[in-house]
């Protein structure tokens, strides 16, 4: 531990600059990539600055250039990029600085927090080793001192029992803890700027709330400037002081958060904010037809993934009861590992049921043979999470949508199926001409519409939608959800809507089932579960959801903190 | 016409040629030129070759053994009294015939087995993988010799010899195609679009051939070219070791090299240099094509032109927003 260190811990004393000094200044930045399809200008004439102790959020949809802008602060752009302009970090211009100076700056002046913590940590070294690696790379630190500093950093980011956990490997930490370790690595050399690229996107909402608290606390303690890249307006409202909105490589608006959320000036910002799903809690009762048996009926449903030789299997779903009535939209909500996707896959016959009973469209799925279930597939649509991979890349959209018609003998070949395909594309509001395009020639939202068209091709009474909008940008998500609601009303199919986003469920579902670790925490009508939750887990889930409004979010945050204090 | 152009640009080698720049393009072009040159020679062998490959005499009588290069025999004659130039030219034809037969046989069988093994899995997969590994563990030339003996049984007509060589090469190559296709199939099997086909209710053969097979053939052009060069080497090796084709049935470089071994020590260089050079050049050409296809297929290895410094007009052209157009449709 060097003598210069302790001063950072005194609150209010900023190591690099007095409060308000510039940490990074970007002027007229242009970034152009050479690709197979010609040059692509990713960032156009962007000027930004970040002050010490400030959190600047860069928001925008995918492809807006927000990540490229942030990465240019670290000089982390591929060789094919051509960078013009000035990125001033302290006294160094990152654009012109040489490789060895750049290496010195990384870590000491600027650090990065990545989106996927498990990918950012090396699985074959202990976290202590990885933390020490960064320290030893910059300056002559003894092994012992580096280890002591690693333990100190782990304690700082809230890893319990750091002196023991320092020798653990990444896989021994949970996702949230791994992200804490990554943050510790970023903070180890007290950089003046931290670039956080979607730091909470891969995490569950409850963990996300904790990580955001940690980032805020560290910012207050060290006065580090944070450049936060995110597409989640709730996260922006929670953490940021100032927001820059990017569209097609340009900054269209920069404003303090409160001002931006209250009075968005640019038309695009207004559109973006309007598209963010909010909890409104509308009662949406279903006028159920009496005497019709439920489409899906689960009783004590258990699903187990077989374990490796000599080890027991993993029970993903542990005795779950629920039902989906004809024409009903059931929202299945849960965090990762709750078993929600497993249940959806079991209903579609993609995963075997190991115990209890699951009746789908009148057929018992426990022990069903593929041959017996295949004819039933006609009555079942499935929308996958990632529209990018759920289409065969070598077939045109029309051929993909025609596939169910051909498989079930309703059309001889894609040409004969074309009239029906055009009808379906029209139903999902895609131009007919899109049928002749290949999947990669469509945007994410368009592909998800086409996916919806394919799943509805046979007019199924049951649709399973597995996180259909979580890979989409908010404004696109809003349109797809709206379309989905319209189609559901028009065709009246029952739906199992699987999602981790409570606000999305709130927009569509008649009833909600909340899953927690393979068991049902709570189920009931949407208004009841989201409005007056009785279960502790549901309450925690709701409290952790960041609201896209800085003022309200600040209030919610203090309420959540108070609840946590009281809970201890 | 536009449709034809589109198809043309998507063809394996043409597509990569358009992508390439600099040294990689140089490699590809050199490889294509050498290979094309030999293909042309093979096709025109009857026209350009001064004599037949098994011709020992013309109107002036016997050629004579080991005559040095001269006006009558541009590259001299072999110890057996054949014309070296004619043997080299006709040898090209034999080489390409063996390549085509060997590749065609191993290609179809290997791809089919790989697809079945990868997609169906289970005991079939395990058995096939073990067999493929066992074949791999054998020295390939030894295996080819055994196959040649079993197949031809000492007989060596043109097609008998070609087939023997081709089939023995096939035995060595099937595991390569098998492995590549199996690995790709296993990867693609877990892709969402295969699952979506399953959910639709498509039958297993339909999923295998319509959805999986077509997506797992990306690396095939590459293995095809690399295997072609290996096929020539194996054929030459077989010929050199005496398991090749008799000189009366077809011209074969390996056989000629074998017969030229004793000539080298007595200063007769032309009998060995020219067949050897032919082998080296064909292998070089085909390998260059294969290696550059390999580099171009991988975006990380592919070099691209750096983005050019742009004028304001260019910048405006680039910013032609694709996503904005897409948004309007949404």
Task: Give a written overview of the molecule.
- The complex is a heterodimer of chains A (568) and B (330).
- Chain A folds into two domains: 222 residues, P-loop containing nucleotide triphosphate hydrolases (Rossmann fold, 3-Layer(aba) Sandwich), CATH 3.40.50.300; 230 residues, P-loop containing nucleotide triphosphate hydrolases (Rossmann fold, 3-Layer(aba) Sandwich), CATH 3.40.50.300.
- Chain A is 37% helix and 24% strand.
- In chain A, strands 6-7-8-3-9-10 form a six-stranded mixed β-sheet, with helices on both faces.
- In chain A, strand 11 and strand 12 form a beta hairpin.
- In chain A, helix 8 crosses helix 20, helix 9 crosses helix 21 and helix 11 crosses helix 17.
- Chain A is globular and about 75 Å long.
- Chain A starts with 21 loop residues before the first strand and ends with a helix.
- By secondary structure, chain B is mainly α.
- Chain B has a single domain, classed as Orthogonal Bundle (MetI-like fold), CATH 1.10.3720.10.
- Chain B has 14 helices and two strands.
- Chain B has a two-stranded antiparallel sheet with strand order 1-2.
- In chain B, helix 3 crosses helix 12, helix 4 crosses helix 10 and helix 6 crosses helix 7.
- The C terminus of chain B is likely disordered.
- Classes of the chains: A alpha/beta (568), B mainly alpha (330).
């Amino acid at each position: 531990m060097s003598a210069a260190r302790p001063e950072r811990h005194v609150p209010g004393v900023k190591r690099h600059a007095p409060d308000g000094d510039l940490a990074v200044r970007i002027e007229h930045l242009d970034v152009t990539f050479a690709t197979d399809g010609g040059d692509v200008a990713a960032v156009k004439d962007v000027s930004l600055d970040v002050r010490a102790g400030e959190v600047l959020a860069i928001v925008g949809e995918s492809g807006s250039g927000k990540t490229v802008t942030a990465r240019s602060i670290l000089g982390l752009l591929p060789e094919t990029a051509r960078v013009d302009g000035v990125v001033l970090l302290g006294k160094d211009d990152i654009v012109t600085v040489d490789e060895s100076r750049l290496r010195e700056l990384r870590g000491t002046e600027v650090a990065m927090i990545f989106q996927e913590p498990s990918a950012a940590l090396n699985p074959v070294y202990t976290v202590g080793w990885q933390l020490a690696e960064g320290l030893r790379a910059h300056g002559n630190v003894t092994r012992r001192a580096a280890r002591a500093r690693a333990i100190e950093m782990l304690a700082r980011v809230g890893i319990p029992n750091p002196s023991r956990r320092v020798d653990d490997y990444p896989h021994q930490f949970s996702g949230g803890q791994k992200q804490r370790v990554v943050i510790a690595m970023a903070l180890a050399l007290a950089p003046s700027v931290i670039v956080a690229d979607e730091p909470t996107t891969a995490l569950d909402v409850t963990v996300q709330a904790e990580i955001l608290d940690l980032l805020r606390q560290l910012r207050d303690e060290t006065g580090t400037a944070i450049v936060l890249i995110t597409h989640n307006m709730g996260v922006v409202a929670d953490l940021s002081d100032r927001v820059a909105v990017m569209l097609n490589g340009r900054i269209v608006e920069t404003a303090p958060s409160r001002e931006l959320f209250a009075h968005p000036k640019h038309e695009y910002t207004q559109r973006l904010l309007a598209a963010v799903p909010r909890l409104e809690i509308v009662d949406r009762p279903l006028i159920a037809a009496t005497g019709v048996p439920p489409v899906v009926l689960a009783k004590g449903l258990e699903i187990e993934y077989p374990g490796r030789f000599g080890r027991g299997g993993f029970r993903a779903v542990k005795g779950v009861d629920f039902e989906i009535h004809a024409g009903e939209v059931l929202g299945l909500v849960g965090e990762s590992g709750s078993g929600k996707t497993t249940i959806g896959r079991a209903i579609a016959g993609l995963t075997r049921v190991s115990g209890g009973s699951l009746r789908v469209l009148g057929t018992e799925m426990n022990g069903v043979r593929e041959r017996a279930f295949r004819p039933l597939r006609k009555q079942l649509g499935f929308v996958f999470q990632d529209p990018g991979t759920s289409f065969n890349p070598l077939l045109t959209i029309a051929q993909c949508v025609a596939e169910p018609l051909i498989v079930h003998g309703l059309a001889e070949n894609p040409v004969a199926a074309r009239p029906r395909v055009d009808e379906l594309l029209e139903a999902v509001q895609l131009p007919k001409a899109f049928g002749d395009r290949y999947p990669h020639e469509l945007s994410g939202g368009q592909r998800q519409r086409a996916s919806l068209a394919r799943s509805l091709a046979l007019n199924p009474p049951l649709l399973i939608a597995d996180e259909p909008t979580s890979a989409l940008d908010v404004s696109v998500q809003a349109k797809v959800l709206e379309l989905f609601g319209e189609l559901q009303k028009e065709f009246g199919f029952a739906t199992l809507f699987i999602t981790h986003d409570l606000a999305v469920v709130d927009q569509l579902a008649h009833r909600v089932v909340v899953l927690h670790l393979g068991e049902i925490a709570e189920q009931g009508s949407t208004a009841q579960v989201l409005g007056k939750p009785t279960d502790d887990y549901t309450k925690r889930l709701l409290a952790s959801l960041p609201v896209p409004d800085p003022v309200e979010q600040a209030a919610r945050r203090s309420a959540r903190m108070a609840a946590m204090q009281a809970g201890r | 016409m536009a449709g034809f152009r589109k198809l043309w640009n998507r063809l394996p080698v043409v597509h990569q040629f358009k992508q390439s720049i600099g040294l990689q393009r140089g490699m590809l072009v050199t490889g294509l030129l050498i290979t094309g040159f030999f293909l042309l020679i093979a096709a025109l062998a009857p026209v350009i070759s001064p004599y037949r490959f098994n011709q020992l005499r013309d109107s002036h009588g016997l050629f004579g053994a080991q005559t040095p290069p001269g006006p009558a025999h541009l590259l001299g004659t072999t110890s057996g009294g054949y014309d070296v130039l004619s043997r080299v030219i006709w040898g090209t034809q034999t080489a390409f015939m063996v390549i085509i037969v060997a590749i065609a046989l191993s290609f179809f069988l290997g791809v089919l087995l790989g697809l079945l093994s990868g997609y169906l899995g289970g005991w079939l997969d395990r058995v096939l993988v073990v067999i493929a590994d066992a074949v791999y563990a054998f020295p390939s030339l030894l295996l080819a010799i055994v196959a040649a003996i079993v197949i031809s049984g000492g007989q060596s007509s043109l097609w008998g010899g070609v087939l023997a060589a081709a089939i023995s090469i096939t035995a060595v190559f099937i595991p390569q195609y098998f492995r590549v296709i199996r690995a790709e199939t296993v990867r693609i099997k877990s892709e969402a679009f295969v699952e979506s086909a399953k959910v639709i209710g498509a039958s297993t053969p339909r999923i295998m051939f319509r959805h999986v097979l077509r997506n797992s053939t990306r690396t095939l052009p590459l293995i095809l070219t690399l295997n072609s060069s290996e096929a020539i080497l194996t054929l030459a090796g077989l010929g050199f070791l005496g398991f090749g084709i008799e000189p009366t049935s077809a011209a074969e470089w390996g056989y000629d090299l074998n017969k030229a071994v004793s000539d080298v020590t007595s200063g007769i260089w032309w009998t060995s240099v020219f067949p050897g050079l032919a082998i080296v050049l064909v292998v070089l050409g085909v390998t260059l094509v294969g290696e550059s296809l390999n580099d171009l297929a991988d975006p990380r290895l592919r070099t691209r032109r750096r983005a050019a410094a742009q004028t304001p007009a260019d910048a405006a052209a680039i910013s032609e927003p694709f996503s904005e157009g897409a948004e309007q449709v949404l």
